[in-house]
Amino acid sequence: MKKNRHETILSLIENVDIGTQEELMNKLNEMGYKVTQATVSRDIKALKLVKTPLKGGQYKYSAVKSSLDDFSEKYKSILSHSVTSVDSAGNMVAVKCYSGMAAAAAAGLDNLMSDKVVGTLAGDDTVFVLCRDESSATEFKRIISQYISDKN
Amino acid sequence: MKKNRHETILSLIENVDIGTQEELMNKLNEMGYKVTQATVSRDIKALKLVKTPLKGGQYKYSAVKSSLDDFSEKYKSILSHSVTSVDSAGNMVAVKCYSGMAAAAAAGLDNLMSDKVVGTLAGDDTVFVLCRDESSATEFKRIISQYISDKN
DNA sequence: AGTGAATATAAATTCAAA
DNA sequence: TTTGAATTTATATTCACT
User: Fold this and answer.
1) Is A114 a residue whose pLDDT tops 80?
2) How far apart are CA A132 and CA A145, in angstroms?
3) Which of A53, A124, B114, B132 could bridge to B45 as Cys pair (CB 3.0-4.6 Å)?
4) Short-list B91, B93, B106, B107, CA closest to B145
5) Would you place residue A51 in the very low, low, confident or very high pLDDT band (cuts 50, 70, 90)?
6) Cα angle vertex B73, ends B72, B75, to 5°?
7) Which residues touch B22 (CB under 8 Å, ≥6 apart)?
8) Closest nt to A19 (CA→C1')?
């Protein structure tokens, strides 16, 4: 299914350096997603990934830091399938997840409102999100809550 | 001169939507810079411009803030080989590391400025550093930042 | 709607030159 | 070191099919 593949692509490019669509295609094939370069090209367009020139003269695909709109397209599904509840105290937000899902959720949370988030730390079923200040934390909590209840 | 052309490119992509290197080449030619697509490709690599997919199904070149990848291969010691960014809020500092490197970084951080540090907690790619107070955290962040940016 | 095969288009690189 | 012409490589799109 396309949605699963998209999620896989996002975590792939985060963890390994992918320089071309062919590389990405091969990784996906290894993982059981039988797709061609044409589909990878479409996926990249849909996910708004960019091919970034690196210092070493290499290129790598990466997700661009998100506005809220971009975020909802990219990570909404991941979050809504991993997060169970969210609460905050002071400038910290605790995001409770299904067992073992915290790392996956943190990947998404890291890309959300980076202006509000200082850092995240994932355990097994909990992600701690350090926000810049209390109002950032409150806002963050509010938005995540929305995403949880809005499954798609 | 290359520098002038680079500056021109940066202002061009900021002001008009450029979707291909050929478009950019034509604009440059109109403005008196006689260059070919080959040079434009090199310029784009040098300036680290990215071809971003837009909502409407179009593409456009844009400048992107330099990120984690800029730092790779640059560090000399263990910290400089693992830390990518650092930020603080209140008396907490979040040290972002490469995937899987947080534990290694934390070992170093524990021994660094121990007078300011109460404790550290490492996840996979983040270390939370609990500092004695806010000014300690700020100072800690400042020093690590210097360390990171003091590359080569 | 989503996809692959083929193709068209775009972009990166090689090689020679200044 | 910088560049253009030619080339290779990479990527986007078209078209047919599901």
Assistant:
1) no
2) 19
3) A53
4) B93
5) very high
6) 95
7) B37
8) D10
Assessment of whether the complete model's pTM goes beyond 0.70 = no
From the list A54, A57, A91, which residue is nearest B90 (CB)? Answer: A91
pLDDT given at position B148: 64
- B31 backbone dihedrals φ, ψ, rounded to 5°: -90, 5
Retrieve residue A128's tokens. Answer: 């701690």
B66 alpha carbon, distance to own chain's centre: 3
Q: Are B92 and B109 in contact (CB under 8 A)?
A: no
Distance CA A31, CA A39 (A): 15
Q: Provide the 8-state DSSP code for B57.
A: S
Q: Mind listing the pLDDT tens digit for each residue in B93-117?
A: 999 887 777 876 776 676 566 567 7
In three-state secondary structure terms, A110 is helix
User: In sequence order, which ranges of B18-133 are alpha helices (DSSP H)?
Assistant: 21-30, 37-47, 78-82, 102-111
